[in-house]
Design goal:
- The chain contains 5 helices and no strands.
- Helices cover 81% and strands 0% of the residues.
């Protein structure tokens, strides 16, 4: 659950939620326009199906845009979708880096806490800390 909250925070920070909402609104508007101008596409349902097929680059061929407006909107939908996919990969990378950063901070905080209570640690805990320091030096 915590990771979903973190993903939501990353999406808000990058304003990806607004971009997705804008894409959905644009998809519905473009679908309505396509349904209105294309002779072979009847109704919003078929317009949405056509837009979905166009933006996923599947291109079944069951519905085809024949007017200039329909073709132009198809190109814009496809380019918009490609940008969304590219931005999504950036969101995933940003989320992953945030998780790694938080883990590093938690590990560092725990290590510093143990250093503050050094006199209270057992020989086994001191040996474990020494191993951690040795591994850290080798990792550099």
């Amino acid at each position: 659950m915590e990771r979903l909250k973190l993903l939501r925070v990353v999406m808000r920070r990058l304003q990806f939620d607004r971009i997705i909402a804008g894409f959905v609104v644009f998809l519905f508007v473009a679908s309505a326009i396509i349904a209105a101008v294309e002779p072979g596409i009847h109704g919003l349902g078929e317009g949405l199906w056509y837009s979905f097929v166009a933006c996923t680059s599947i291109g079944f061929g069951d519905l085809v845009a024949v007017t200039f407006t329909g073709r132009l909107l198809t190109v814009i939908i496809t380019i918009y979708e490609i940008l969304i996919v590219a931005m999504f990969s950036g969101v995933v990378v940003s989320y992953y880096l945030e998780v790694v950063h938080r883990r590093e901070n938690e590990t560092l905080t725990a290590f510093l806490d143990r250093l503050e209570h050094l006199t209270e640690l057992s020989d086994e805990e001191l040996s474990e800390m020494q191993d951690q320091v040795t591994r850290f030096k080798k990792g550099r």
